[in-house]
Amino acid sequence: MTRILVTGATGAVGANVIHELRARGADVRAFVRDPRAAAAKLGDVELVPGDFDDPASLRRALHGVDRVYVSAADGPRKVAHETAVIDAAAEEGVDRIVKLSAMHAEESSALPAFRWHGEVEAHLRRSGLAAVVLRPAFFMTNLLMVAGGVAHTGLLHAPTAGRRIAMIDIRDVAAVAAATLVAETLPGRSYDLTGPAAITFADVAAALGDATGRPVRSVDLTEEEARPRFEGADVPDWLGTHLAGVFGVIRAGGFERTTDQVRALTGRPARDISGFARDFAAAFTPQGAPA
Ligand SMILES: NC(=O)c1ccc[n+]([C@@H]2O[C@H](COP(=O)([O-])OP(=O)(O)OC[C@H]3O[C@@H](n4cnc5c(N)ncnc54)[C@H](OP(=O)(O)O)[C@@H]3O)[C@@H](O)[C@H]2O)c1
Which stretches are transmembrane (predicted)? Predict the structure, then answer.
């Protein structure tokens, strides 16, 4: 049976990849830093302790593995972490890598996370390994970052200039990852992944209003008005720069294109914003949101 190693297994997408692989009856192993915390989050799955900064732990985890899901946290160590997995996988003779990347990944990007993904994709091409690269659009779960504001004010602020975004549910990203990990044969290529429709933040506000039973109104900010929200946010500088840049891409129409890859690769339609809003409604209400 094909054995699959999932890195970033406790991550938001990674935990859903584990869930999807187990639902498909796959032989799964999770690479985790803290087995106790991972067991509480992931349930009954084989756990292999290790750290991307410890190459010996990666080689141990990869022993006897056929396919690998590669995803490390965004941040200044991302390229080092993901290239370490790729190099160890090449040494151990793994026959397929599935890498979680991002739409607009580019080595020359001014947006830190898109640049890091571009650098890892280039490393993967140079490795000669058979690889599938998943390039999802904007995640619906990004909306959770402003859930408290929505819950307490009924307002959804964003500098989108009214443009549409083909946002995607991470559960669909995970389903595609699982499908491409277990597929018997697959052309080595990149897939741009989106939700079923390109929608505005006014559409998002309407869906959140319907799901919570409380009115939600979207307020479009100018780039100038939004700048303090990114610069003043309690996040690392690179993330403030990246988030501001993502909204620049949105205002330029860079997330308006939809693709049918979720359906093509999983056989199921991609989830829409109404389903996301219903499933996460509690986070957008005063009872469920952080103060
Ligand atoms: N947000 C968007 O709109 C969007 C769009 C397209 C693509 N993406 C991409 O999606 C990816 C995010 O995936 P995700 O949400 O699953 O990730 P995540 O929630 O950030 O999780 C990161 C994972 O990496 C693990 N990790 C961190 N440092 C480690 C180390 N030194 N050794 C071993 N494991 C380590 C973490 O384990 P611990 O539990 O031990 O911390 C966790 O499992 C990013 O690459 C992002 O660029 C995002």
Answer: none
| Atom nearest to 167 CA in ligand 1 | 3
The residue whose CA has the least distance to atom 15 of ligand 1 is: 12
The CATH code of the domain at 140-165+196-257+267-284 is 3.90.25.10
pLDDT tens-digit profile of 178-191? 999 999 988 779 99
Cite the beta strand spans of 239-291 per DSSP E.
none
Best residue among 74, 78, 146, 191 to mutate for probing ligand 1, ranked by most atoms within 8 Å of CB: 74
Angle at 281 between CA 276 and CA 286, to 5 degrees: 150
DSSP string, 196-208: SS-B-HHHHHHHH
What CATH class is the domain 3-136? alpha beta
Q: How many CB atoms lie within 10 A of CB 201?
A: 23
Q: For the segment 47-99, what is each residue's pLDDT rounded down to a tens digit?
A: 999 999 999 999 999 999 999 999 999 999 999 999 999 999 999 999 999 99
Q: Which helix (H) or strand (E) is 153 found in, with range?
A: helix 147-153
Q: Would you kindly state where each structural domain of the chain is located, as residue ranges?
A: 3-136, 140-165+196-257+267-284
Token couple for 274 = 């109404």
| Residues contacting residue 217 through CB under 8 Å, at least 6 positions apart | 154, 155, 156, 205
User: Burial of 162 by CB count in 10 Å (0-12 exposed, 13-18 middle, 19+ buried)?
Assistant: exposed
